[in-house]
Amino acid sequence: MHPLLIPLHTSFHAHADPGEAASMKAYLKDQFAFLGIKAGKRRALAKEFIKEVGKQDRTVPENLVREMWALPEREFQHTAIDLLIRYQRSAPLSHLDLYEALIVNKSWWDTVDMLAGTLVGTCFQRHPEMIQSRTEIYIQSGNMWLQRTALLFQLKYKQATDWELLKRYCLQCAGSKEFFIQKAIGWALRQYSKFEAELVRTFVETHELPALSRREALKYLNRQE
Length: 225
Known about the structure:
By secondary structure, the chain is mainly alpha-helical. The chain has helices at residues 5-14, 18-27, 39-56, 62-70, 74-86, 95-103, 109-126, 131-140, 144-152, 163-173, 179-193, 197-206, 211-224. Helices cover 69% and strands 0% of the residues.
Protein backbone atom coordinates (compact mmCIF):
# COMPACT_ATOMS: atom_id res chain seq x y z
CA MET A 1 0.00 0.00 0.00
CA HIS A 2 1.19 3.53 -0.80
CA PRO A 3 2.81 4.98 2.37
CA LEU A 4 0.57 8.08 2.31
CA LEU A 5 -2.53 5.89 2.17
CA ILE A 6 -1.79 3.70 5.19
CA PRO A 7 -2.87 6.20 7.91
CA LEU A 8 -6.06 7.06 6.02
CA HIS A 9 -6.89 3.39 5.50
CA THR A 10 -6.42 2.74 9.22
CA SER A 11 -8.49 5.77 10.23
CA PHE A 12 -11.37 5.01 7.89
CA HIS A 13 -11.63 1.43 9.08
CA ALA A 14 -11.50 2.55 12.72
CA HIS A 15 -14.55 4.77 12.12
CA ALA A 16 -16.59 2.22 10.17
CA ASP A 17 -20.31 2.08 10.94
CA PRO A 18 -21.92 -1.13 9.65
CA GLY A 19 -25.45 0.25 9.96
CA GLU A 20 -24.65 3.31 7.86
CA ALA A 21 -22.68 1.14 5.47
CA ALA A 22 -25.75 -0.95 4.72
CA SER A 23 -27.86 2.14 4.04
CA MET A 24 -25.21 3.67 1.78
CA LYS A 25 -24.81 0.45 -0.14
CA ALA A 26 -28.57 0.20 -0.67
CA TYR A 27 -28.72 3.83 -1.87
CA LEU A 28 -26.31 2.99 -4.68
CA LYS A 29 -28.28 -0.11 -5.66
CA ASP A 30 -25.97 -2.51 -3.78
CA GLN A 31 -23.19 -2.00 -6.30
CA PHE A 32 -20.42 -0.92 -3.94
CA ALA A 33 -19.17 -1.71 -0.46
CA PHE A 34 -19.10 1.08 2.11
CA LEU A 35 -17.52 1.60 5.49
CA GLY A 36 -20.47 3.74 6.54
CA ILE A 37 -18.68 7.08 6.96
CA LYS A 38 -20.87 10.06 6.08
CA ALA A 39 -19.46 12.73 3.77
CA GLY A 40 -18.75 15.38 6.41
CA LYS A 41 -16.93 12.98 8.70
CA ARG A 42 -15.10 11.40 5.77
CA ARG A 43 -13.76 14.77 4.66
CA ALA A 44 -12.71 15.61 8.22
CA LEU A 45 -10.85 12.31 8.56
CA ALA A 46 -9.18 12.81 5.17
CA LYS A 47 -8.12 16.42 5.75
CA GLU A 48 -4.61 15.61 6.96
CA PHE A 49 -4.14 12.99 4.26
CA ILE A 50 -4.96 15.52 1.54
CA LYS A 51 -2.58 18.05 3.12
CA GLU A 52 0.22 15.48 3.29
CA VAL A 53 -0.15 14.63 -0.38
CA GLY A 54 0.24 18.31 -1.20
CA LYS A 55 3.37 18.59 0.89
CA GLN A 56 5.00 15.81 -1.09
CA ASP A 57 4.11 17.16 -4.52
CA ARG A 58 1.40 19.52 -5.73
CA THR A 59 0.76 17.04 -8.54
CA VAL A 60 -1.27 14.14 -7.18
CA PRO A 61 0.51 10.82 -7.84
CA GLU A 62 -1.51 8.75 -10.29
CA ASN A 63 -0.47 5.50 -8.66
CA LEU A 64 -1.94 6.71 -5.35
CA VAL A 65 -5.27 7.56 -6.97
CA ARG A 66 -5.42 4.27 -8.84
CA GLU A 67 -4.71 2.36 -5.64
CA MET A 68 -7.53 4.21 -3.88
CA TRP A 69 -9.83 3.38 -6.78
CA ALA A 70 -8.96 -0.29 -6.48
CA LEU A 71 -9.96 -0.48 -2.80
CA PRO A 72 -13.40 -2.04 -2.26
CA GLU A 73 -14.96 0.64 -0.07
CA ARG A 74 -16.58 3.59 -1.86
CA GLU A 75 -15.27 6.13 0.64
CA PHE A 76 -11.81 5.74 -0.89
CA GLN A 77 -13.09 6.61 -4.37
CA HIS A 78 -14.88 9.67 -3.02
CA THR A 79 -11.73 10.77 -1.20
CA ALA A 80 -9.65 10.24 -4.34
CA ILE A 81 -11.93 12.67 -6.14
CA ASP A 82 -11.68 15.19 -3.29
CA LEU A 83 -7.90 14.89 -3.52
CA LEU A 84 -7.86 15.43 -7.28
CA ILE A 85 -10.18 18.44 -6.99
CA ARG A 86 -8.01 20.00 -4.27
CA TYR A 87 -4.98 20.05 -6.59
CA GLN A 88 -6.68 20.19 -9.98
CA ARG A 89 -5.18 23.55 -10.93
CA SER A 90 -1.70 22.05 -10.86
CA ALA A 91 -2.69 18.79 -12.57
CA PRO A 92 -0.76 17.89 -15.74
CA LEU A 93 -2.64 17.25 -18.97
CA SER A 94 -1.84 13.56 -18.54
CA HIS A 95 -4.41 13.50 -15.73
CA LEU A 96 -7.11 13.65 -18.40
CA ASP A 97 -6.26 10.03 -19.18
CA LEU A 98 -6.55 9.27 -15.47
CA TYR A 99 -9.97 10.93 -15.23
CA GLU A 100 -11.19 8.91 -18.20
CA ALA A 101 -9.95 5.69 -16.61
CA LEU A 102 -11.82 6.52 -13.40
CA ILE A 103 -14.99 7.36 -15.32
CA VAL A 104 -15.15 3.91 -16.91
CA ASN A 105 -14.18 1.95 -13.78
CA LYS A 106 -16.53 1.46 -10.83
CA SER A 107 -18.87 3.79 -12.70
CA TRP A 108 -21.95 5.35 -11.18
CA TRP A 109 -23.36 8.86 -10.97
CA ASP A 110 -21.79 9.57 -7.56
CA THR A 111 -18.27 9.53 -9.01
CA VAL A 112 -18.84 10.21 -12.71
CA ASP A 113 -20.68 13.50 -12.19
CA MET A 114 -17.84 15.00 -10.13
CA LEU A 115 -15.25 13.70 -12.55
CA ALA A 116 -17.18 15.10 -15.53
CA GLY A 117 -18.51 18.40 -14.22
CA THR A 118 -15.49 19.41 -12.16
CA LEU A 119 -12.29 17.60 -13.11
CA VAL A 120 -12.76 17.02 -16.83
CA GLY A 121 -14.49 20.38 -17.15
CA THR A 122 -11.61 22.23 -15.49
CA CYS A 123 -9.03 20.31 -17.52
CA PHE A 124 -10.77 21.34 -20.75
CA GLN A 125 -10.90 24.96 -19.61
CA ARG A 126 -7.15 24.85 -19.15
CA HIS A 127 -6.61 22.93 -22.40
CA PRO A 128 -9.44 23.93 -24.76
CA GLU A 129 -7.59 22.48 -27.72
CA MET A 130 -8.47 19.03 -26.34
CA ILE A 131 -12.24 19.52 -26.19
CA GLN A 132 -13.29 18.66 -29.71
CA SER A 133 -11.18 15.54 -30.21
CA ARG A 134 -11.69 14.00 -26.79
CA THR A 135 -15.40 14.66 -26.42
CA GLU A 136 -16.03 13.24 -29.89
CA ILE A 137 -14.35 10.06 -28.67
CA TYR A 138 -16.63 10.06 -25.62
CA ILE A 139 -19.80 10.48 -27.67
CA GLN A 140 -18.82 7.80 -30.18
CA SER A 141 -17.52 5.37 -27.54
CA GLY A 142 -20.75 3.57 -26.81
CA ASN A 143 -19.90 3.91 -23.11
CA MET A 144 -22.80 5.54 -21.29
CA TRP A 145 -20.58 7.22 -18.70
CA LEU A 146 -18.22 8.75 -21.23
CA GLN A 147 -21.24 9.99 -23.17
CA ARG A 148 -22.65 11.48 -19.97
CA THR A 149 -19.28 13.19 -19.48
CA ALA A 150 -19.48 14.78 -22.94
CA LEU A 151 -22.90 16.15 -22.01
CA LEU A 152 -21.97 17.38 -18.53
CA PHE A 153 -18.39 18.69 -18.71
CA GLN A 154 -19.66 22.24 -19.38
CA LEU A 155 -21.96 22.38 -16.33
CA LYS A 156 -19.88 25.14 -14.70
CA TYR A 157 -19.06 27.08 -17.88
CA LYS A 158 -22.06 29.43 -17.59
CA GLN A 159 -22.04 31.94 -20.49
CA ALA A 160 -18.83 30.38 -21.83
CA THR A 161 -20.70 27.17 -22.72
CA ASP A 162 -20.14 26.06 -26.30
CA TRP A 163 -23.80 26.02 -27.23
CA GLU A 164 -23.31 24.52 -30.67
CA LEU A 165 -21.34 21.63 -29.20
CA LEU A 166 -23.88 21.04 -26.45
CA LYS A 167 -26.80 21.04 -28.92
CA ARG A 168 -25.01 18.59 -31.17
CA TYR A 169 -24.27 16.16 -28.37
CA CYS A 170 -27.81 16.41 -27.00
CA LEU A 171 -29.20 15.51 -30.43
CA GLN A 172 -26.70 12.71 -30.93
CA CYS A 173 -27.80 11.17 -27.63
CA ALA A 174 -31.51 11.97 -27.95
CA GLY A 175 -32.35 8.46 -29.11
CA SER A 176 -30.80 6.81 -26.07
CA LYS A 177 -33.04 4.78 -23.79
CA GLU A 178 -30.57 5.08 -20.91
CA PHE A 179 -31.95 6.97 -17.92
CA PHE A 180 -28.57 8.53 -17.12
CA ILE A 181 -28.18 9.86 -20.67
CA GLN A 182 -31.70 11.28 -20.85
CA LYS A 183 -31.22 12.88 -17.43
CA ALA A 184 -27.86 14.35 -18.45
CA ILE A 185 -29.33 15.96 -21.56
CA GLY A 186 -31.95 17.68 -19.43
CA TRP A 187 -29.50 18.68 -16.71
CA ALA A 188 -27.04 20.24 -19.16
CA LEU A 189 -29.81 22.18 -20.91
CA ARG A 190 -31.35 23.30 -17.62
CA GLN A 191 -28.00 24.61 -16.42
CA TYR A 192 -27.50 26.64 -19.59
CA SER A 193 -31.08 27.93 -19.46
CA LYS A 194 -30.08 30.00 -16.43
CA PHE A 195 -28.00 32.14 -18.78
CA GLU A 196 -29.68 31.73 -22.17
CA ALA A 197 -33.32 31.02 -21.46
CA GLU A 198 -34.77 31.59 -24.92
CA LEU A 199 -32.07 29.59 -26.70
CA VAL A 200 -32.81 26.57 -24.55
CA ARG A 201 -36.58 26.94 -24.68
CA THR A 202 -36.55 27.20 -28.47
CA PHE A 203 -34.23 24.22 -28.77
CA VAL A 204 -36.42 22.04 -26.57
CA GLU A 205 -39.60 23.09 -28.35
CA THR A 206 -38.23 22.49 -31.85
CA HIS A 207 -36.40 19.17 -31.42
CA GLU A 208 -37.38 15.62 -30.57
CA LEU A 209 -36.02 14.92 -27.12
CA PRO A 210 -36.96 12.23 -24.58
CA ALA A 211 -39.77 13.28 -22.25
CA LEU A 212 -37.46 13.04 -19.25
CA SER A 213 -34.90 15.30 -20.95
CA ARG A 214 -37.58 17.86 -21.80
CA ARG A 215 -38.93 17.95 -18.26
CA GLU A 216 -35.47 18.34 -16.76
CA ALA A 217 -34.45 20.98 -19.31
CA LEU A 218 -37.45 23.23 -18.60
CA LYS A 219 -37.58 22.93 -14.79
CA TYR A 220 -35.76 26.20 -14.12
CA LEU A 221 -37.58 28.11 -16.84
CA ASN A 222 -40.99 26.89 -15.71
CA ARG A 223 -40.29 28.04 -12.16
CA GLN A 224 -39.55 31.54 -13.47
CA GLU A 225 -42.98 31.91 -15.05
